[in-house]
Amino acid sequence: TTYSEPYRGQFHFSSQSGWMNDPNGLVYANGEYHFFYQHNPHGLAWDTMHWGHATSPDLVHWTQKPIAMEPGVQPGTLFSGGGVVDTANSSGLKTGSLDPIVVYSNTDGVSVYYSNDNGRTFQAYDKGRKVVTVPSGVSSRDPKVTWDAARHRWVMVFWSDEGGNGVSIYTSTNLLDWTFASRYRADWLFECPDLFPLPLDGHTNQQRWVLTSASSQYVVGGFDGTTFTADGTGPQKMVNGDFYAAETFTNTPDGKTVQMGWQNGNQGSTWTGDASFPVDLGLVSTPDGPRITRTPVAGLSSLASQTQHWAGRTLTPNSNPFSGIKADIYDITAQFDVSHATAGSFGFDLHARSDGSADRTVVYDTAKQTLDGIPLKPRGGKVTMRLLVDRGQLEIYADGGLFSVADNVNFDSAADSQGIRLFSNGGNVKLDSADFTRLNTSWG
Ligand code: FRU
Question: N or C: which end of the chain has fewer CB within 10 A?
Answer without folding.
Answer: C
